[in-house]
Design a protein that fits this description.
Structural class of chain B: alpha/beta
Helix content of chain B: 25-40%
Number of strands of chain B: 34
Order of helices and strands of chain A: EHEHHEHHEHEHHEHHEHHEH
Largest sheet of chain A: 4 strands, parallel
Number of domains of chain B: 5
Number of helices of chain B: 18
Strand order of the largest sheet of chain B: 10-7-6-18-29
Radius of gyration of chain B: 31 Å
Largest interface: A-B, 9 and 10 residues
Largest sheet of chain B: 5 strands, parallel
Oligomer: heterodimer
CATH superfamily of the largest domain in chain B: FAD/NAD(P)-binding domain
Strand content of chain A: 5-15%
Strand order of the largest sheet of chain A: 2-1-3-4
Shape of chain B: globular
CATH topology of the largest domain in chain A: Rossmann fold
Shape of chain A: globular
Structural class of chain A: alpha/beta
Number of helices of chain A: 13
Distance between the termini of chain B: 20 Å
């Protein structure tokens, strides 16, 4: 079984902290993650709003490359990439004619055999079973697990966790010593791509997510999506200005929390790159 | 020699628009043994039938093929016409040119060619038909009503009042059903119990009705007029004959923490209990699953306190064998509960309740004696939200249908709330208001205009708890999908009505069909809404689909009339299209070797064992025999028989072979 990783644009840019923490965990647990060679953009939100063929061709090229690399299982840490890759695989599996057209466009063989997993599934499979005895600094804080929209939806395609009130991240966090709180904003919209064009909307929506977590005495918001992270962390100044409040709750990636719990230094998991100071550990 | 008459119907333009009927008649007329082949605009009309009758007499026909619509439509009509002209009705066959040809094809030569082929097969078949005589079976004039809700009660009383015997079987300890749980009823706001309980008592006291509560259907065999039903009478653990229903045992039972089903889990009951004060019969049962004696082997407090020593801990279940002529299914419905809705918290918020729970809160005999108090802390909710269509009309939830009763009972709930909490605010989120019923629309307008209920057209995306309030998020689609957020103290979900638990199992026992939602299926959606596809079994009430009280009662009376009509005859006539085992002279008797494989595949338990014996009683041969009363003519045994000893009257192997050969051979 060969496990690969598709980083997507975020993990090399705005979410380098996420990337660093994923690889730090891989190193700590001696897990191999081979990057898909010559990868391209997954199309994100833009492609499927403009051109359906393009939105399927881009991810199918990535999946074809993974097949060429002999990768059986691809970890896709970014929730948007995870969603696009899985949607593509499902659509091409359902419709052989569409598959023929798309493989014609990318001029590559495509079998659709690679298993696409998100970062929580990767943790569940390779890290939590080996976590016993490795926790040196339990992350003993109240945490609000924020899944966002793309990790669990659409349920019929992803078939992962429950679309309302998902549990997988809460479970992983309790294994790392944290105390997940009751949090009804788990899958509310953070504003997503409007981060660039309508910062005011992001400020409003992300602000609600943060406000509710703070009001329930959470000490950190945990995410598994670079977009969610940048909206809740990078846009914090805008949010505070919009709401006229001083929200201070830090936002951590699920991988960072586990990294800290097994004793990795803050810098190793990229905490130094956050806009909102992480004082919890 | 066979003399076959063929009658081609145009069915107005239904057939003739795509099939060249004149050409079909001409072509068929040239076939061997066809004495006459004519076409006519409406064969089923009086003049059309006269053509057939005259032809039978004039041409001394031995067989008739009517080429028209589906035999389901007019086979009885034409067979009757043949019989009137002196021809055995089973010498008449139908070729289906409408459903099988003209309706499904374009007008062209191939369509006409197919029509000719269809008629030819029937001509070949009818040549091999034999004269058959209808089978007569007796009728047991006792009806079984399954379910003791308002539909079952109405059906039982109506049948009993025609003078026939009725057995009512109800699985819970009391009859009354969901209607007994309701507070007031729409659109008149009269008290549900007040109108229901007299009828419950009438059932118990009616000389023609035998009531078995705490009982379930074990198995059903037989056929219309002659069902054999086994009923399991679950042990009530007391002697009903001597119990006076004083209720002392129920007050002394130390186990008091069992969620009360009648109160929808909002109250508690003891292990020995009477479901509600007006229960019929008003005698307790012991719930063995929760009784301390049955769990731990000691307690017996009820036995000690019972003044007449009626408790029977070792009472076994009783199996009753009943002879039944007709069955009315009235098993009612269930509702989805709040835990079906992840977006509303999977049932974890105590103050998010379902409609039946609200009925109990509003009921004078309910856990709060009619005061609207929220379950979490017993406070009066100042702001209440009702959600119509919770689950219903939602394909994502797997429930595409409208549950029909929710629009009305939600309006009623909001009204009852406003009548009891004058300063309170009631909001209703709805998709459409479906108030099609006598005085229904007026009732909804009253809720809006007189009681100032706030109707918001839109759906709820989520409900969550914050600072002791339920935050209800939705959209007002009449204001351009503007987001709405309400801080509610209590939320009532008008959850979807679904089939009663165990409906599927019961349907299989009864051999009646049911739909994908496990509701019992009617024989025809418009013209046979009361019948099932199994003769002698009828439907009443919400076991067919969600229904309100007036509809359930009307249908129950309809079912009762069907039963009464059936019981008005002493004998039933059945079509003789049944299987038979061949017979020949001794010493062979039959080619059947007695392997009885047919017995195991017969879906109707219609195959019996027949023994041939010598005069001194020595067994010569044991072979299969078909019970003509039970056989439905499905032909499974015919296909399975290894020695080709079984055949089917009207559809013999020989005839089917002739049909196939007619299609394969040139003409």
């Amino acid at each position: 079984m060969k496990t690969g990783i598709y980083p997507g644009c975020s993990l090399n840019g705005s979410a380098r902290d996420y990337n660093e923490s994923v690889f730090a965990l891989a190193e700590a647990f001696s897990l191999k993650l081979e990057q898909v060679s010559d990868w391209n953009c997954c199309g994100a939100t833009a492609a499927h709003n403009l051109n359906k063929d393009l939105s399927l061709a881009l991810p199918s090229r990535i999946l074809s490359l993974a097949e060429q690399n002999g990768i059986d299982e691809i970890v896709v840490p970014c929730a948007a990439c995870y969603n696009r890759l899985t949607v593509t695989q499902t659509e091409l599996r359902k419709d052989p004619e569409l598959k023929n057209r798309i493989t014609g466009i990318i001029e590559m063989d495509y079998k659709g055999t690679s298993r696409i997993i998100n970062v929580i599934e990767w943790i569940d499979k390779y890290i939590t079973p080996n976590l016993e005895g490795r926790i040196v600094k339990p992350f003993s804080h109240k945490v609000a697990c924020y899944y966002g929209c793309l990790l669990v939806r659409p349920y019929k395609v992803l078939n992962y966790d429950r679309p309302e009130d998902p549990q997988s991240m809460d479970l992983a966090m309790s294994k790392a010593g944290a105390e997940p709180i009751y949090y009804p904003f788990k899958t509310e919209c953070c504003g997503a791509g409007l981060s660039i064009s309508r910062t005011d909307i992001v400020s409003k929506l992300s602000g609600k997510i943060i406000e509710d977590a703070e009001s329930r005495d959470a000490e950190a918001i945990i995410v598994a999506c670079p977009m969610c992270h940048s909206n809740l962390d990078m846009r914090r100044n805008d949010i505070n200005k919009y709401w006229g409040k001083e929200f201070t709750i830090p936002v951590l990636f699920v991988t960072q929390v586990i990294g800290l719990a097994i004793g990795l230094p803050a810098k190793k998991v990229g905490l130094n790159r956050h806009f909102v100071d992480v004082k919890v550990n | 020699m066979a003399r076959i008459g063929v009658f081609i119907c145009h069915c107005g333009e239904n057939i003739s628009a795509t099939v060249d009927c004149v050409k079909v008649a001409e072509t068929i007329g040239k076939l061997k043994h066809v004495a006459l082949s004519v076409d006519y605009k409406y064969m089923c009309s009086d003049p059309g039938q006269t053509i057939i009758k005259d032809a039978i007499k004039e041409h001394k026909l031995t067989g008739v093929v009517v080429s028209a619509c589906s035999p389901r439509m007019h086979e009885p009509t034409f067979r009757r016409a043949c019989a009137e002209a002196g021809l055995n009705p089973f010498m008449c066959e139908m070729a289906n040119l409408r459903e099988h040809c003209s309706w499904v094809h374009e007008k062209n030569d191939l369509t006409t060619a197919k029509a000719i082929d269809i008629v030819r097969t029937q001509v070949e078949k009818v040549k091999l038909n034999h004269e058959l005589q209808p089978i007569k079976v007796p009728v047991t004039k006792t009806a079984l009503v399954i379910g003791g809700g308002i539909a079952g009660i109405q059906a039982a009383l109506d049948i009993a009042n025609t003078g026939h015997k009725v057995v009512m079987v109800e699985r819970s300890p009391s009859i009354g059903g969901h209607m007994s749980q309701l507070s007031e009823t729409f659109p008149t706001l009269d008290c549900s119990q007040c109108i229901l309980t007299p009828r419950m008592v009438e059932v118990a006291q009616h000389p023609n009705i035998t009531l078995y509560t705490y009982a379930e259907i074990e198995s059903v065999e037989g056929f219309i007029g002659n069902f054999k039903v086994k009923v399991r009478k679950k042990a009530k653990s007391l002697d009903e004959k001597i119990c006076t229903g004083c209720g002392l045992c129920t007050t002394k039972c130390p186990q008091k923490k069992i969620p009360n089903e009648f109160e929808q889990g909002m109250g508690m009951r003891p292990a020995i209990y009477i479901p509600f004060p007006q229960a019929v019969p008003n005698k307790p049962v012991i719930d063995r699953e929760h009784c301390t004696y049955y769990i731990k082997g000691k307690c017996k407090v009820c036995e000690i306190v019972c003044p007449i020593k009626a408790i029977r801990f070792d009472q076994p279940d009783e199996i009753l064998d009943l002879d039944i002529g007709a069955i009315v299914i009235a098993t009612g419905f269930d509702i989805k509960h709040a835990d079906f809705f992840p977006e509303y918290g999977y049932g974890k918020y105590k103050d998010v309740i379902d409609g039946l729970q609200f009925e109990r809160l509003a009921s004078a005999s309910g856990p709060t004696a009619g005061a609207i108090l929220r379950p979490s802390d017993g406070q009066v909710p100042k702001n209440i939200v009702f959600v119509a269509c919770a689950g219903s009309r939602d394909p994502a939830k797997g429930i595409e249908y409208c549950s029909k009763i929710c629009c009305m009972y939600t309006a009623k709930h909001a009204m009852l709330y406003k009548h009891k909490v004058h300063e309170g605010k009631a909001h209703i989120f709805y998709m459409d208001i479906r108030a099609a019923g006598k005085n229904y629309e007026e009732f909804v307008r009253r809720a809006i205009e007189e009681d100032h209920v706030d109707y918001i057209r839109g759906r709820i995306s989520t409900i969550y708890e914050k600072n002791g309030k339920l935050i209800v998020k939705g959209a007002d689609t009449l204001l351009g999908a503007q987001p709405v957020e309400i801080e509610a103290d209590m939320v009532v979900l008008a959850t979807a009505g679904v089939a009663s638990s165990g409906a599927e199992e019961l349907a299989q026992k009864l051999h009646v069909s049911y739909d994908s939602h496990k509701f019992f299926a009617e024989a025809h959606p418009k013209l046979k809404p009361v019948e099932t596809n199994t003769a002698g079994i009828f439907l009443a009430g919400a076991c067919q689909n969600p229904k309100d009280i007036p509809d359930s009662v009307s249908q129950a009376s309809g079912a009762a009339v069907k039963v009464a009509a059936l019981f008005s005859q002493d004998e039933l006539t059945r079509e003789p299209l049944v299987a038979f085992v061949n017979r020949m002279a001794p010493p062979l008797y039959t080619t059947c070797v007695g392997c009885f494989l047919c017995q195991s595949v017969c879906p109707y338990q219609a195959i019996e064992r027949e023994e041939f014996k010598t005069r001194d009683g020595k067994l010569i041969k044991a072979v299969a025999k078909i019970n003509e009363g039970l056989c439905q003519g499905c032909g499974t045994c015919v296909a399975l028989c290894r020695s080709k000893s079984i055949d089917l009257h009207g559809y013999s192997n020989h005839q089917v072979y002739a049909e196939v050969m007619a299609l394969l051979n040139e003409y």
